[in-house]
Design brief:
Blueprint lengths: L3 E8 L2 E8 L2 E5 L1 E3 L12 H6 L5 E4 H6 L3 H6 L3 H5 L5 E4 L2 H6 L2 E5 L4 E4 L6 E4 L1 H11 L3 E3 L11 H21 L7 E6 L5 H14 L3 E4 L8 H11 L9 E3 L5 H8 L5 E3 L2 H7 L2 E4 L2 E4 L19 H5 L2 H9 L3 H27 L3 H14 L6
Parallel strand pairs: 4-14, 5-6, 6-10, 10-11, 11-12, 12-13, 13-14
Antiparallel strand pairs: 1-2, 2-3, 7-8, 8-9, 15-16
Helix pairs in contact: 6-7, 7-8, 11-14, 13-14, 14-15
Amino acid sequence: MTLRFSVSASDGAARRGRLETAHGVIDTPTFMPVGTAATVKAMTPEAVRETGAQIILGNTYHLMLRPTAERVAKLGGLHRFMNWPGPILTDSGGFQVMSLSQLNKVTEQGVTFQSHIDGARHELTPERSIEIQHLLDATITMQLDECVKLPATEQRAAEAMRLSIRWAERCRTAFRQREGYGLFGIVQGGTNAALREESAKGLLGIGFDGYAVGGLAVGETQEEMFATLDVTVPHLPADRPRYLMGVGKPSDLVGAVMRGIDMFDCVMPTRSGRTGQAFTRRGSINIRNARHAEDPRPLDEHCRCPACRDYSRAYLHHLVRSDEILGAMLMTQHNLTYYQDLMIGMRAAIAEGRLQAFAADFQAGQTLGDIEPL
């Protein structure tokens, strides 16, 4: 194992930790902004850093198609290419192959698919996924897995999970061990407790630098997701980081941290920002609503981001309703700042043994609703 992970405090199942990598230190719990195609949409790398983000996510599927991993490697790797010197986690491309591509075919060897860009045929095997992520110079590489949409039959979930374990072994063999770089395995099995346990034990037998919980936030309820974490996390080693993939809403993050999850990613804060939704300490706000047209107050009076510090709701309403690019930029930066502040708050609460009180205050704030209209 070449990634150094240590837990400095715990509160119930929640942990405050530190992950040391070749590209910098990550404090956990952490949220990774999604930079799918070598950019966090509507954000400069400098602005992403200002939110407090320490690690971002890139995507193998999109980058292998355009501009290609070989071109990124020729230009010095993904960190230099996108001007992000910090850690980068790349997902394996498996989820996007299943969800975006046309006519994909899964076999023991891998998956063949047609590009959603130009229809060209490609093959993604465990070995090729690892090679692409190596060319990108990913700090944290993810194994290739098969992710099925929920609900799924037990037989279908079992087949995908067992194939993912076999692919995980091939990924481990193909991965080039380097100091400060790591490979994560992905636990699958739908919402079935026995399958999740089988998946976790299979991955532990192979040995990874960290363990992700995949196959959630794909159609199940929050209660089902939390129940799945309750039966999965206890089977994961305490001395390795745990990553919940593709999650989620602020309440998802709080609940998952309380169940022992250390790392998250999701497009929700960036995508919502581009469509006019802001997450705040009093719940979400749709800035497009007419009631904000003459409101001089900030989105969130306790937020440190430029949108809240320097601009009114009225101005943000105008920008978003006018489809001005600045509106998407400010709203996205606000949401990412809110997510990072939520992580900072949980890290402090875990260290001080008051996460339950933090979660109760968070939930109470979310149910208050928006600030009363003028």
